[in-house]
Write the structure tokens for this entry.
Amino acid sequence: MLKITEDLRQLYDEKKRALHALTHAHHEVLMKLATAAEFRDDDTGVHIVRLGLMAEKLSLLYGETVEFSFMIRLAAPMHDVGKIGIPDHILKKPGQLTPDEREQMNRHAEIGHQMLLSTVPLFELAASIALTHHEKFDGSGYPAGLKGHAIPLEGRVVALVDYFDALTMDRCYRKALDDEQVIDMIAAQKQRHFDPELAELFIDKVSSFIALRENTNARSLMFKDLIHLSADDLIGLR
């Protein structure tokens, strides 16, 4: 009996180590994909880190589990990985896109989904985010024109935090907007662009999201830091 118990314990330990190694490998692949996307779009470096942390925080505020919120922290930075498939003359164009260029740019959602689609849960979540983060609550988004709660929660969460962070940072084609202006824009887009419940939660706790942004910037965090550093950890840093 003692030998059987010892064998079972050893088997459990081996499976635990194997699972840890596999999980680490999944994170490593996502990190490399994130880095590849950054090379294509010069503006996105710290943005994707902030996005992961903000997505985690909003998920927790919405009542999601710690496990799901951890997953979205790692998966959200993959939202625009499909831009790898968009030509540079469109991706980095400083002016307004033509209708044809906009159509090509919008394809990044489906490209990212195809790149990430997998039976691995972390990649499955990342694929869903890539495909649905440009859908809008009123059904006017792309690529499928999904409406309301037909849009997966992860897509609704990332749509909101991406909007806030992207508009409050300098881009190659425009200067950053003030926080207050973007908050007003989010409030005006409830029920249209954004899930109204998520928008209310975000606006009510916007100081936490601003703290996440500022602390991330101050520490020059990278994607690999998301594996060990949570949103609440970072908000508490001074």
